[in-house]
Fold these 2 entries.
Entry 1:
Amino acid sequence: MYTRLRSVLVLGGLLLGLASTSTAQDKKPGTDPIDFQKQVWPILEKTCLKCHSTASTGADGKLKKPKGGVVLDSKQGITTSKKGKLVVAKKPADSLLYYAISLPADHEDRMPPAKEGDALPKEKQDVILKWIEQGASFGSWTGKAKEGGDTGSGEKGSGEKGGEKGSGDKGKGDKPDEKPNDKPKPGDKPKVDPLARLRQGVKPLAPATLAAFAESPFQVQSVGEDNPLLRVSCAGRTDEVTDASIASLQPLCEHITELDLGRTGVGDAACAVIAKMPRLTVLDLRQSQVGDHGVAALAACRELRSLNLFGTKAGDYAVATLSSLKNLEDLYVWQTEVSAAAVVRLREAVPNVRVVLAAELPEPMAETPGNNRRRPGNK
Amino acid sequence: MTLPDLIAGTDIQGRRTFLTRMASSLLGVGAAAAFGPEAVARALAQDPAPPLVLGRATAKNVIYLFLRGGMSHLDTLDPKPGKETQGPVEALRTRADGVLLGQYFPKVAEQMDKVCIVSSMSSKQGAHPQAQYLMRTSYELRGTIQHPSLGAWCQRLAGRNNKMLPGHVLIGGGAEMPSAGFFPPDFQALPIGSAEDGLQNATLPRGVDNERFERRLARLKQLDSAFAEKHGQRSVQAYSKAYTEAVRLMRSSDLVAFDIELEPKSMQQAYGETPFGAGCLLARRLVEHGVRYVEVMSDGWDTHADNFDRLGDLTPAIDQGLAALLADLDARGLLRETLVVLATEFGRTPDIDQDQGRNHYPKAFSCLLAGGGVRGGQRYGSTDAEGREVATEPVSIQDFNATIAHAVGLPLDYVITSPSGRPFKVADKGSPITSIFS
């Protein structure tokens, strides 16, 4: 993940480098450290402060509180908030600020909200991305201060780490001598892992709770280093997993983000437990006994991105109940009762979903002469 | 050992051979004859460490299809239409805009939206055994040590998904190639000689029912117990544990994973009823059941003479099997968690010789990745106009293997020390191509 992220960041730097050539003076594009006060602050000021300023009494005498407890006009406000860390130096994926502005327009958490205005243009998003990547230095800016402080020292301050990796420079061209890790490709988009948001505020489970599963048919793993969220599967002991055994997952409900119950004996009753997993993003029920009523219960899993119902008893009713899952990206319904018409209706409700209704298997081979028969001797 | 010997060795096994092979795969003791009891004891002393914490993996499983002998890049994955080096082969448009394939892969062309071709592979190794070794281990072949293959690394660092089944299966030959290397022998791949025959000797012999088998096992235990008590060594315990695990697999519901005859006829036909197609189908069944790393071998790609005729013979099975595998995995929702790799040890010369042949050419060649988080419909890197030199974004064999390891979430800088005291990493000094992932 880290290296992937880095290549993405390098790309961000690359785009920015191109965009900022006109404004930066006498510097190579791509290497300029982002100056918070000159480049980031104006974006926040223009776009965010209407709702996210320190509480103050307005002209009408009413106290105006910041929305959602998010305050963007002070250094402290930007680094922390009620919702979690808005900015984590060098880790855009963990920074809620960047997450919120880079969401697609139809996402309910997108900032600014659709009714308040359009998304930040890509260049501006990338300024913030690069600023976080460079270490999120504020220079001399402390916030809640008058405008136009001494910019000179601010520039130096923010420059301290900017060139550290020389990442912008490296990503600049297609020179073959660049490090293979950092190969940027046009068309790459900085993508934020939804798990970064879902993990906010989740405390890791006590080791004893996890240890209790050592002898169970379930395999319980963390989804990544230091991540409290869990991936649960039961490969190899699928025949032991039934509706009754799913109940033992109750203590993990808040933590499970990926659940693989493929080929197990679970049916509709298990879905009642699964419905209590608010952070579930990937659910695999392929070739289980789940049917329409079980799937209907899954509408409670608002974060669900991938749902595998291959070879289950799900039908059109099941697919209809999924239309409230706006985050759904992948749905597998090959070898079920689901009809093409139901899929069309789901696509209307959830435009971004990819539904796989059948395999595009190749036509059988014509009689072939060679048939890849073994030929001895690779001499 | 010649190839036919090996095939014979993997195809026709006695029951004892089966148990020994199962043992070697499940626990590694079967290899004791070759390694000596000390080696087994040593292996068990350093029991496989609990799987390390993985990075955020994009793939859970790997299906690694290996075309032995060196597939011509110009005629398959990296066509150069209109150039003299292309010979008589035409280029095909595919479902991915601007990504062309050689005429031999019309069915794969229909699946190109799932595939990333890596066109800028390059190495310095132009001899088959050395190049195959390098491809599968990331290290140069040496006389003093045998390196573990990528599959063994994967099992070692990521653990088994299904504890009941082997962590690593090798289908269709290639058992003489490095597998566990210097790792304890339980990281050895389970060889399946022929996918059509599946796992041999895993059912009870005729005339032996369950009860009788139980009695036999009990008698075996009885005979062994005195010895085991007297020689309470780990290697002795390991043997009996291996037998227990083999018996457990024989009775496991997962045993059906090895039987492609359970697939509908239409599915078998979709994969193509060829050794390679059957291998792909078996690989899909194994991955479904939680085997993490499956390799399928295809031989005969060393097309020194009559390159074009031979490709005409060789490619239909690959085209059919690979296309079916990609479509089938995708529709089952398995492609998102399974990285499919099509690899070969080197390319073939752009210049066509007087025998209509192409010869060894490691300087520039192509491999293919699909699924497992890789963005489809793209070509990574390129060769020059005639396919002679890598033009952009060179990828070494180590880089390629690092990319596979990266997808599975293996720690690339994790060092394992060989019994001889030297440090090794999963892809040596390779760096993953991170930009091809979506």
Entry 2:
Amino acid sequence: MLALYSNPKWLSVVRGAVERLVETLGFPPVQCRSVIRAVDEALSNVMRHSYGNRLDQPIAMYFRKARRQYEGEVQEGLEILLCDRGPAVDATKFHGRALDRIRPGGLGLHLVRQAMDTVEFTRKGPTNRLRLVKYLAQSNSAL
Amino acid sequence: MQISARRQEQTTIFDVSGDIDFANSRELRQSVLQEIQERHAGRVVVNLSQVRYIDSSGVASLVAGLKTSRDLGSRFMLIGLSPAAREVLQLSRLIKLFEIYDSEEQALAS
């Protein structure tokens, strides 16, 4: 579990931690970069949108192994739960922009969705919860 | 992130190092836009060879530089893209907008 405040200075620290984690779990380099990017973009969105750039708001991140049956094989992976206490987010707006328009806005969410196998947003009590899961092909697993 | 500028006649080369993320992308944006708008650089080259990571806000800063360059009739180029930087531009489908070169020599000769 990682507990941090909504100050962007912590982004590089989290990227470093996630990098070590996904490398240790055996994700190949391209997927390592994707997961790091997804976590970084999701965390930036919390700081920017949920907390309106305030620097002192709480964020909690939980990491655990995930497992699923997929096309006849067991796949293991990494589940990340990102929790904040900002205002409730309209889940219907929780999607990236269409990429047929040339502009960068909404790109962060697109990168999150592109990287992860599961992206789920829920509100539980006063907490926004973003659940991200990435599975690893069995042959690459170091779990 | 660290950013420094080299100027050669009408060309300004920004050497950027470190990670570009939400914590510092505004600094990159301001530096690049100031060079284009106030110094009227005819050609701006952003050297990303020492940048290991760039997020969507960093990409937005580069797009702002590109748009402003186009508006003012100057050129905007990227050189030395790392795998992570290239991936994020490809995934955003914004890569086709930029003039991208492997090296400074190639960019300046273009």
